[in-house]
Design goal:
With 254 residues, the protein is α/β, with parallel strands linked by helices. It has a domain of 174 residues: Vaccinia Virus protein VP39 (Rossmann fold), CATH 3.40.50.150. Helices cover 34% and strands 24% of the residues. A 7-stranded mixed beta sheet has the order 3-2-1-4-5-11-8, with helices on both faces. The chain has a two-stranded antiparallel ribbon with strand order 6-7. Helix 1 packs across helix 2, helix 2 packs parallel to helix 3 and helix 6 crosses helix 7. The protein is globular. The chain starts with a helix and ends in a 7-residue tail after the last strand. The structure holds S-adenosylmethionine. The site of S-adenosylmethionine has 23 residues, from helix 2 and strand 2.
Length: 254
């Protein structure tokens, strides 16, 4: 997630001193931005590799002056209530959950060295779908993805305090010749769990240069769109992310 996007969401949907959770925290962007903004933070992450980097990023933020603490717990986000039992008094008291889940499509970092030299694969296989471990939800597709993410969001709803916010950053990606409606699927999943659909914000992947908006779509999206256009298919690059905001009702009857 872009740090600026995380910062904006944290400032909009939580207050100083609040507890922020990222259940799939990756390298810890949400946690770092939370402690810089004076919030307490906790993250869970399946992969020890990314959890270690998240802890290093938190330590770095503390050297830069962030005064609050953030903890990273290794484990499966589907078991949040159990994982947070070791982090009292977190369960049922989280003010804001902010995350960017896997997008149900192939992801990998770009090897800049190979891209520049033109030698070797552009795709960094060691980062493919976050892990070689097939239980990582980066590998889940279709119905299996929806079922697993329903479990993650149910666990999120359980640890949120009444009135707390769940903010999800998703992206509608193209694959197999189709645009996948991940934002729509995510809204359905969360509404089915009884969360209130609160807001939807379009996060442009752009920068401002000389008063002009310059789009900055990802490398893979650009490559994909160029290949489609070369085949004569009329497709535009997806140059935004969807920021989906949900709220846990204050009382069952609310
Ligand atoms: C898109 S990244 C999230 C990055 C981070 N949330 C951010 O916004 O910067 C998705 C992360 O989910 C992790 N993940 C996948 N399945 C998981 C699971 N069942 N429980 C916890 N983390 C999981 C992956 O290892 C990966 O680090």
């Amino acid at each position: 997630m872009l740090p600026a996007l995380a910062r904006r969401a944290i400032e909009s949907y939580s207050d100083p001193g609040d507890l922020v959770l990222d259940p799939m925290c990756g390298i810890g962007t949400t946690l770092v931005e939370s402690i810089h903004a004076g919030r307490r933070a906790v993250g869970t992450e399946l992969e020890p590799r990314w959890a270690t980097l998240a802890r290093a990023n938190i330590e770095h933020a503390q050297h830069q002056g962030a005064r609050l603490l953030a903890q990273v717990i290794e484990g499966d986000a589907r078991h949040l209530p159990r994982l947070l039992a070791t982090h009292p008094p977190a369960c049922g008291r989280v003010d804001l959950i902010l995350t960017s889940p896997p997008y149900a499509c192939e992801v990998a970092d770009v090897s800049n060295a190979n891209l520049v030299s033109g030698v070797g694969p552009i795709r960094r296989e060691d980062t493919s779908n976050y892990s070689a471990d097939r239980t990582n939800l980066g590998h889940a597709r279709g119905r299996a993805y929806l079922a697993a993410m329903a479990e993650v969001y149910e666990a999120c709803a359980a640890v949120l305090k009444p009135g707390g916010f769940l903010v999800l950053v998703t992206k509608d990606m193209r694959s197999g010749g189709k645009l996948h409606n991940l934002s729509g699927d995510t809204i359905t999943l969360c509404e089915n769990l009884g969360l209130n659909y609160w807001q939807r914000i379009i996060g442009l992947l752009a920068t401002v240069r000389d008063s002009e908006i310059v789009m900055r779509p990802s490398f893979w999206q650009t490559l994909h769109a160029r290949r489609m256009r070369a085949r004569g298919e009329r497709a535009h690059v997806v140059a935004h992310e969807d920021v989906l905001v949900f709220r846990k009702p204050n009382a069952p009857s609310a």
